[in-house]
Amino acid sequence: PENIGKELTKNSYRMVVLGASRVGKSSIVSRFLNGRFEDQYTPTIEDFHRKVYNIRGDMYQLDILDTSGNHPFPAMRRLSILTGDVFILVFSLDNRESFDEVKRLQKQILEVKSCLKNKTKESADLPMVICGNKNDHSEIFRKVRSDEGENLVSSDENCAYFEVSAKKNTNVDEMFYVLFSMAKLPHEMSPALHRKISIQYDSPPMGMTIECARGRALGLMCHTDPGQRL
Ligand code: GDP
Ligand code: MG
Protein backbone atom coordinates (compact mmCIF):
# COMPACT_ATOMS: atom_id res chain seq x y z
CA PRO A 1 0.00 0.00 0.00
CA GLU A 2 2.83 2.50 0.66
CA ASN A 3 3.92 2.55 -2.96
CA ILE A 4 0.43 2.53 -4.43
CA GLY A 5 0.74 6.19 -5.43
CA LYS A 6 3.96 5.64 -7.30
CA GLU A 7 2.74 2.52 -9.01
CA LEU A 8 -0.45 4.16 -10.17
CA THR A 9 0.88 7.06 -12.12
CA LYS A 10 1.88 4.94 -15.08
CA ASN A 11 -1.44 3.10 -15.32
CA SER A 12 -3.81 5.94 -14.63
CA TYR A 13 -6.68 6.75 -16.97
CA ARG A 14 -9.35 9.36 -16.99
CA MET A 15 -12.75 8.78 -18.49
CA VAL A 16 -14.90 11.81 -19.21
CA VAL A 17 -18.65 11.53 -19.74
CA LEU A 18 -20.20 14.42 -21.64
CA GLY A 19 -23.59 15.29 -23.09
CA ALA A 20 -26.69 17.42 -22.60
CA SER A 21 -28.49 17.20 -19.27
CA ARG A 22 -31.00 14.41 -18.58
CA VAL A 23 -29.76 12.17 -21.37
CA GLY A 24 -28.61 9.50 -18.89
CA LYS A 25 -24.91 10.16 -18.28
CA SER A 26 -25.09 9.52 -14.55
CA SER A 27 -27.29 6.48 -15.11
CA ILE A 28 -24.69 4.96 -17.44
CA VAL A 29 -21.92 5.67 -14.93
CA SER A 30 -24.02 4.12 -12.20
CA ARG A 31 -24.56 0.99 -14.30
CA PHE A 32 -20.83 0.75 -14.75
CA LEU A 33 -19.97 1.28 -11.09
CA ASN A 34 -22.63 -0.69 -9.30
CA GLY A 35 -25.06 -2.14 -11.80
CA ARG A 36 -27.94 -0.10 -10.48
CA PHE A 37 -30.47 2.22 -12.10
CA GLU A 38 -32.52 5.02 -10.51
CA ASP A 39 -35.72 6.30 -12.07
CA GLN A 40 -35.48 9.47 -10.06
CA TYR A 41 -33.52 12.32 -11.61
CA THR A 42 -30.69 13.90 -9.60
CA PRO A 43 -29.00 16.81 -11.34
CA THR A 44 -25.26 16.37 -11.50
CA ILE A 45 -22.88 19.20 -10.95
CA GLU A 46 -19.68 17.31 -11.46
CA ASP A 47 -19.10 13.88 -9.94
CA PHE A 48 -15.83 12.05 -9.58
CA HIS A 49 -15.46 8.35 -9.13
CA ARG A 50 -12.19 6.59 -8.73
CA LYS A 51 -11.57 2.91 -9.09
CA VAL A 52 -8.30 1.25 -8.33
CA TYR A 53 -7.68 -2.18 -9.76
CA ASN A 54 -5.09 -4.78 -8.98
CA ILE A 55 -4.67 -6.75 -12.18
CA ARG A 56 -2.15 -9.56 -12.11
CA GLY A 57 -0.09 -7.64 -9.56
CA ASP A 58 -0.14 -4.30 -11.39
CA MET A 59 -2.09 -1.32 -10.10
CA TYR A 60 -4.44 0.51 -12.44
CA GLN A 61 -6.50 3.55 -11.72
CA LEU A 62 -9.60 4.74 -13.51
CA ASP A 63 -11.04 8.17 -12.77
CA ILE A 64 -14.50 8.85 -14.09
CA LEU A 65 -15.67 12.40 -14.50
CA ASP A 66 -19.43 12.59 -14.78
CA THR A 67 -20.10 16.13 -15.96
CA SER A 68 -23.19 18.28 -15.79
CA GLY A 69 -24.98 18.86 -19.08
CA ASN A 70 -25.06 22.60 -18.77
CA HIS A 71 -21.62 24.03 -18.38
CA PRO A 72 -21.74 27.62 -17.21
CA PHE A 73 -17.95 27.76 -17.39
CA PRO A 74 -16.62 26.82 -20.85
CA ALA A 75 -13.11 26.73 -19.39
CA MET A 76 -14.15 23.87 -17.12
CA ARG A 77 -15.34 21.81 -20.03
CA ARG A 78 -12.19 22.54 -21.94
CA LEU A 79 -10.17 21.42 -18.94
CA SER A 80 -12.19 18.20 -18.69
CA ILE A 81 -11.44 17.54 -22.33
CA LEU A 82 -7.76 18.35 -21.98
CA THR A 83 -7.31 15.97 -19.07
CA GLY A 84 -9.46 13.16 -20.47
CA ASP A 85 -8.02 9.98 -22.00
CA VAL A 86 -11.23 8.26 -23.06
CA PHE A 87 -14.61 9.84 -23.74
CA ILE A 88 -18.23 8.83 -23.64
CA LEU A 89 -20.55 11.25 -25.42
CA VAL A 90 -24.16 10.61 -24.53
CA PHE A 91 -27.37 11.75 -26.15
CA SER A 92 -30.93 10.55 -25.81
CA LEU A 93 -32.44 8.85 -28.84
CA ASP A 94 -35.69 10.70 -28.23
CA ASN A 95 -34.08 14.14 -28.19
CA ARG A 96 -32.73 15.71 -31.34
CA GLU A 97 -31.04 18.64 -29.57
CA SER A 98 -29.02 16.28 -27.43
CA PHE A 99 -27.70 14.67 -30.62
CA ASP A 100 -26.70 18.08 -31.97
CA GLU A 101 -24.89 18.71 -28.70
CA VAL A 102 -22.94 15.47 -29.11
CA LYS A 103 -21.87 16.58 -32.58
CA ARG A 104 -20.61 19.87 -31.13
CA LEU A 105 -18.81 18.06 -28.32
CA GLN A 106 -17.13 15.63 -30.68
CA LYS A 107 -15.89 18.52 -32.78
CA GLN A 108 -14.62 20.38 -29.73
CA ILE A 109 -12.81 17.32 -28.37
CA LEU A 110 -11.06 16.72 -31.66
CA GLU A 111 -10.07 20.37 -31.86
CA VAL A 112 -8.76 20.60 -28.31
CA LYS A 113 -6.90 17.28 -28.53
CA SER A 114 -5.47 17.77 -31.99
CA CYS A 115 -3.85 21.04 -31.04
CA LEU A 116 -2.56 19.41 -27.86
CA LYS A 117 -1.02 16.51 -29.73
CA ASN A 118 -0.11 18.57 -32.75
CA LYS A 119 -1.92 16.10 -34.93
CA THR A 120 -4.49 16.55 -37.61
CA LYS A 121 -8.09 16.06 -36.59
CA GLU A 122 -8.27 12.89 -38.60
CA SER A 123 -5.39 11.15 -36.95
CA ALA A 124 -5.87 12.15 -33.30
CA ASP A 125 -6.22 8.69 -31.79
CA LEU A 126 -8.84 9.26 -29.17
CA PRO A 127 -10.87 6.40 -27.83
CA MET A 128 -14.41 7.66 -27.87
CA VAL A 129 -17.85 6.16 -27.76
CA ILE A 130 -20.95 7.96 -28.91
CA CYS A 131 -23.86 6.61 -27.03
CA GLY A 132 -27.53 6.92 -27.96
CA ASN A 133 -29.30 6.20 -24.68
CA LYS A 134 -32.91 5.38 -23.79
CA ASN A 135 -33.11 2.72 -26.43
CA ASP A 136 -35.92 1.19 -24.35
CA HIS A 137 -38.39 3.84 -25.50
CA SER A 138 -40.77 2.92 -28.26
CA GLU A 139 -39.56 3.61 -31.79
CA ILE A 140 -42.26 6.25 -32.25
CA PHE A 141 -40.29 8.54 -29.90
CA ARG A 142 -37.08 8.14 -31.83
CA LYS A 143 -35.67 11.42 -33.13
CA VAL A 144 -32.27 10.19 -34.35
CA ARG A 145 -31.77 7.42 -36.90
CA SER A 146 -29.14 4.76 -36.27
CA ASP A 147 -27.29 5.60 -39.48
CA GLU A 148 -26.93 9.23 -38.33
CA GLY A 149 -25.19 8.00 -35.21
CA GLU A 150 -23.04 5.58 -37.20
CA ASN A 151 -22.04 8.40 -39.54
CA LEU A 152 -20.40 10.28 -36.69
CA VAL A 153 -17.92 7.48 -36.11
CA SER A 154 -17.46 5.92 -39.53
CA SER A 155 -14.16 7.62 -40.34
CA ASP A 156 -12.41 6.83 -37.07
CA GLU A 157 -11.40 3.39 -35.88
CA ASN A 158 -11.05 4.61 -32.29
CA CYS A 159 -14.62 5.79 -32.24
CA ALA A 160 -17.70 3.62 -31.93
CA TYR A 161 -21.44 4.16 -31.87
CA PHE A 162 -23.76 2.30 -29.50
CA GLU A 163 -27.45 2.45 -28.80
CA VAL A 164 -27.97 1.54 -25.17
CA SER A 165 -30.47 1.60 -22.38
CA ALA A 166 -29.16 2.37 -18.91
CA LYS A 167 -32.63 1.55 -17.65
CA LYS A 168 -32.86 -1.94 -19.12
CA ASN A 169 -29.11 -2.45 -19.01
CA THR A 170 -29.02 -3.13 -22.74
CA ASN A 171 -25.68 -2.90 -24.52
CA VAL A 172 -24.04 -0.97 -21.65
CA ASP A 173 -21.42 -3.59 -20.78
CA GLU A 174 -20.72 -4.10 -24.49
CA MET A 175 -20.18 -0.36 -24.91
CA PHE A 176 -17.64 -0.24 -22.07
CA TYR A 177 -15.92 -3.35 -23.33
CA VAL A 178 -15.36 -1.84 -26.78
CA LEU A 179 -14.29 1.50 -25.32
CA PHE A 180 -11.70 -0.19 -23.13
CA SER A 181 -10.46 -2.28 -26.04
CA MET A 182 -10.02 0.80 -28.20
CA ALA A 183 -8.14 2.49 -25.34
CA LYS A 184 -6.03 -0.67 -24.91
CA LEU A 185 -6.99 -0.94 -21.27
CA PRO A 186 -6.93 -4.37 -19.67
CA HIS A 187 -10.19 -6.15 -20.36
CA GLU A 188 -10.41 -6.85 -16.62
CA MET A 189 -11.50 -3.23 -16.20
CA SER A 190 -14.66 -3.90 -18.21
CA PRO A 191 -17.89 -4.03 -16.27
CA ALA A 192 -18.47 -7.77 -16.41
CA LEU A 193 -15.21 -8.40 -14.58
CA HIS A 194 -14.24 -5.26 -12.70
CA ARG A 195 -16.83 -5.63 -9.95
CA LYS A 196 -14.98 -8.68 -8.78
CA ILE A 197 -11.47 -7.29 -8.76
CA SER A 198 -11.54 -3.64 -7.83
CA ILE A 199 -10.03 -3.00 -4.44
CA GLN A 200 -11.08 0.54 -3.81
CA TYR A 201 -14.20 2.38 -4.71
CA ASP A 202 -15.50 5.85 -5.21
CA SER A 203 -12.95 7.93 -3.35
CA PRO A 204 -12.27 11.52 -4.28
CA PRO A 205 -9.11 12.41 -6.20
CA MET A 206 -6.21 13.96 -4.40
CA GLY A 207 -6.67 17.60 -3.55
CA MET A 208 -10.42 17.26 -3.61
CA THR A 209 -12.52 16.97 -0.50
CA ILE A 210 -15.37 14.52 -0.13
CA GLU A 211 -17.71 17.49 0.12
CA CYS A 212 -16.44 18.71 -3.20
CA ALA A 213 -16.61 15.37 -4.98
CA ARG A 214 -20.10 14.93 -3.66
CA GLY A 215 -20.76 18.58 -4.25
CA ARG A 216 -24.27 18.27 -5.53
CA ALA A 217 -25.62 20.17 -2.57
CA LEU A 218 -22.88 22.76 -2.78
CA GLY A 219 -23.40 23.19 -6.47
CA LEU A 220 -20.73 25.13 -8.25
CA MET A 221 -19.72 26.91 -5.07
CA CYS A 222 -17.01 24.31 -4.65
CA HIS A 223 -13.75 26.18 -4.16
CA THR A 224 -11.29 23.59 -5.33
CA ASP A 225 -9.42 24.84 -8.34
CA PRO A 226 -9.65 22.09 -10.99
CA GLY A 227 -6.24 23.19 -12.20
CA GLN A 228 -4.63 21.84 -9.04
CA ARG A 229 -5.38 18.32 -10.10
CA LEU A 230 -3.29 18.61 -13.22
P1 GDP B 1 -27.82 13.01 -16.84
O1 GDP B 1 -28.37 14.36 -16.51
O2 GDP B 1 -27.34 12.94 -18.26
O3 GDP B 1 -26.79 12.53 -15.86
O4 GDP B 1 -29.07 12.00 -16.80
P2 GDP B 1 -29.48 10.99 -15.64
O5 GDP B 1 -28.63 9.80 -15.65
O6 GDP B 1 -29.60 11.74 -14.36
O7 GDP B 1 -30.93 10.56 -16.17
C1 GDP B 1 -31.93 11.53 -16.45
C2 GDP B 1 -33.30 10.86 -16.36
O8 GDP B 1 -33.43 9.91 -17.42
C3 GDP B 1 -33.51 10.08 -15.06
O9 GDP B 1 -34.85 10.24 -14.66
C4 GDP B 1 -33.25 8.64 -15.45
O10 GDP B 1 -33.97 7.76 -14.65
C5 GDP B 1 -33.71 8.62 -16.90
N1 GDP B 1 -32.95 7.63 -17.71
C6 GDP B 1 -31.62 7.46 -17.75
N2 GDP B 1 -31.29 6.46 -18.58
C7 GDP B 1 -32.45 6.00 -19.10
C8 GDP B 1 -32.76 4.96 -20.04
O11 GDP B 1 -31.92 4.23 -20.58
N3 GDP B 1 -34.09 4.82 -20.35
C9 GDP B 1 -35.06 5.59 -19.79
N4 GDP B 1 -36.31 5.33 -20.16
N5 GDP B 1 -34.79 6.54 -18.90
C10 GDP B 1 -33.51 6.76 -18.56
MG1 MG C 1 -25.93 13.52 -14.32
UniProtKB/TrEMBL annotation:
PROSITE patterns cross-referenced by the UniProt entry: RAB, RAS, RHO
GO biological process assignments: signal transduction
Keywords: Cell membrane, GTP-binding, Lipoprotein, Membrane, Methylation, Nucleotide-binding, Prenylation
The keyword Lipoprotein is assigned to this record: yes
GO molecular function, a single term: GTP binding
Membrane topology: Lipid-anchor
Entry's transmembrane regions: none
Protein name (Swiss-Prot/TrEMBL): RASD family member 2
Species: Apteryx owenii (Little spotted kiwi)
